[in-house]
Amino acid sequence: MAISDQLIERIHQTKHNSIHGFFDKIKTKKWVKDLYETLFLPQDDNTEDQLKRNFEALQKTLSDLINTVTGDKIITEKQVNRFFEALPQLYDQLVLDAKSILEFDPAADSLEEVYLAYPGFFATYVYRISHQLWSQEVKILPRVISEYAHSKTGIDIHPGATIGKSFFIDHGTGIVIGETTIIGNNVKIYQGVTLGALNVSKEKAHQKRHPNIEDDVIIYSGATILGGETTIGRESIIGGNVWVTQNVPANSLVYHKSEIKIKDNSSLPESLTFVI
């Protein structure tokens, strides 16, 4: 069945009208990967001259991507300069993140292992560069960058979130951190944690919807913490699989109490005897 000329015309017109909103996602992913390798991984030629050439190529690619969004070469140049001026600080933050993983994860033997093999660190790297672009009010691109990490690691961190120093993600799969979340320093988060909103109505789009996590908090796997007015006080521990929608004082321990019963010879409850 032939596609109608009317549909082709509608699609073409829509894309034409949105030309400054779309860009090459493959080029975006390559830029994220190339920047990561330039910052952290050894390459065939590790000379300073090669690093300079790498950064020049990275600047050119970022310029192409941002220009596609802005359509303005002057604004694009300012945005690219701001990003690379902030890069030394981003690098220092990321080294602290990696050192936090090395310090607190018994399975980590070296920083090289963290850089090569830890999805939590890669997701944190993507968050920090996308957050920088988000803070510069670059449109669309930070979200596409953050979704790249989401697709690779299963960790979903909105670039609008605020995350402090020495951030530790262990395992990471299934973590969701919403746009207005504020996380302090030295926070540790395990797989399956949700820092989300109690109300997802569109009218609250510009309000504080996600929780505040103060310094030195540990949040174990499967915990769900919701609400823009919810604060987890410093040095608290949130146990696995708990549901929190109210403030937790500093130095608290929140946990879900399981009940253990020893099996006897009586028949099991019907809910436990099904077969998949």
Describe it for me?
This protein is an alpha/beta fold and 276 residues long. It contains seven helices and 14 strands. The chain has helices at residues 5-17, 25-40, 48-70, 73-104, 111-117, 119-135, 141-153; strands at 156-157, 162-163, 168-170, 176-177, 182-183, 188-190, 194-196, 212-213, 218-219, 224-226, 231-232, 237-238, 243-244, 253-254. Strands 1-4-7-10-13 form a five-stranded parallel β-sheet. The longest helix is centred in the first third of the chain and has 32 residues, at 73-104.
Task: Lay out the secondary structure.
Layout: H1 5-17, H2 25-40, H3 48-70, H4 73-104, H5 111-117, H6 119-135, H7 141-153, E1 156-157, E2 162-163, E3 168-170, E4 176-177, E5 182-183, E6 188-190, E7 194-196, E8 212-213, E9 218-219, E10 224-226, E11 231-232, E12 237-238, E13 243-244, E14 253-254
Parallel strand pairs: 1-4, 2-5, 3-6, 4-7, 5-8, 6-9, 7-10, 8-11, 9-12, 10-13, 12-14
Q: Rg, please?
A: 22 Å
List the helices and strands in order. Answer: HHHHHHHEEEEEEEEEEEEEE
Give the helix/strand class: alpha/beta
Strand order of the largest sheet: 1-4-7-10-13
* Mean pLDDT value: 91
Low-confidence stretches: none
Number of strands: 14
List keywords for this structure.
7 helices; 276 residues; globular; 5-stranded parallel β-sheet; alpha/beta; 14 strands; 12% strand
